[in-house]
Structure formats: structure tokens, C-alpha cells
Amino acid sequence: MRKQGSLIFLQWPTLITFSGIVLLLSLGTWQIYRLHWKQNLLSLLETRFALPPEKIDNVRSFKLSDLEFRRIRVTGVFVDDWALKLQGRTHEGKLGYHLIVPLQLANGSRILIDRGWVPFTEPYSPGKLSGAFSIEGYIRLHSDRNFMTPQNLYEEKEIYALYPGEIASHFHMNTLLPFYIVQTEPLDKSPFPIPATFSLSLRNFHLQYAITWYVLALLLGIVYILYIRRQRGTF
């Protein structure tokens, strides 16, 4: 009877340990998946950034998925009455926002331009951008969004994730193109916005993270084995 009670006692530690090992192995495997994803992304960036900038008329022949990170040059007039603030962006450790402004093209279409970072101490007021501008940058389909991303506040023109299709639908911009451009060159000598600087040195610590999770799973297994041996009096 004592032996049976001892086996029942060991069921909970076994269940908890097994669940913990499965969780840790899953986290490690997820990091390996992210490692391959990051490597493929870096390869894609290298390939597409090596190409000369496309003209806006040429990109219409591409599939939408093939436009991501392609360099592009466009010319148009800013419609800065429709400027949006992409909140929660940092630059050198300082918090601010990215200024998103539609650009009116000669063919009547509009495209969103991520003009770069602005500190909160520099509020943006419409009416500053007059005349035609030539913009050079690269194409993005949308920004990142997850379950922690706040809802966009379109009435206040403050957003936390940039989705051109969603913006077109909300503001009834039927001519808005389904991607946006991240500006990489300044338009004038103004200190802000600070345009994006492209770098192929993306953070890639996924292998270290994967090794950490796998080592923790191994250590948990070793601790469990030592615990079982101690309970059976063989340690």
C-alpha cells in the first residue's frame, strides 16, 4: 500500500516535469523556426536592395508579395492634411512617432510615405509641405502588429500599426495604393523627421535563445531524474 501511495505521489512531479520539458522544447523549436525565417529575410533584403530603384509605374506589373523591401523612387505632392502619427517609435533610445503622409501622384493615385521619426517635443502641424517632392525609399506592405498592439485611433489620426488597406477603407481613399514607402533620404535641412536608415545587420539571437531553452529542458530532466532516485532511495 505504501508503494502504491508513493507512485501516486510521484505522478504530479512527473506530470509537471513532462509538461515543462515539452514547453521548453517547443520554445526552442520556435526559435529555430525564427532563425530560419530571419536568415531568409536577410537573404531577401540583400537581393532586393541590390536592385536599382523601381519607378512607380513599373511596380504595377509585380505581385504584391514581390514588392516588399524593393527600392523605389516616386514624385508627387504631399497631402499633409491627412498626416498620421505612427505612435510608439524610438530613435536612439528616445520615444516619439513616425510621420505618415499621403503623397499624391501625377496619375491620381496616393501612396503613404513613412517620412521618419519625430520626437514628441516636435508636434506636427499641417501646411508645411508645399510643392512637388521626389521621394526615395523602400516598399513595405504593412507594419508589425500583435495581440499587444493598441487599436488605431483614426479620429485622432494616431495609429499603432500601419495597414494601407485599413486606412484606405476608413478614410474612403479609393485611390490609395496597397503598400507604403519608408523614406530613406531627407527632403530638406529640417532636423525632423529623421528618415529611416537601412541596414542588413538585423538582430539575430534566435540560435542563442534556442540553445538556452534546450539546455533548460535538459537541466529540468536531470533534476527530475535525481529527484526520482532520491525518492526511491537509490541516490
UniProtKB/TrEMBL annotation:
It is found in: Cell membrane; Membrane. PROSITE patterns: SURF1. Belongs to the SURF1 family. The chain crosses the membrane at residues 12-33, 207-227. It comes from the Bacteria. It is a multi-pass membrane protein. It comes from Caedimonas varicaedens. The keyword Transmembrane applies. This is SURF1-like protein. One of its GO terms (cellular component) is plasma membrane. PANTHER family: SURFEIT LOCUS PROTEIN, SURFEIT LOCUS PROTEIN 1. InterPro entries: Surf1/Shy1, Surf1/Surf4. Keywords: Cell membrane, Membrane, Transmembrane, Transmembrane helix.
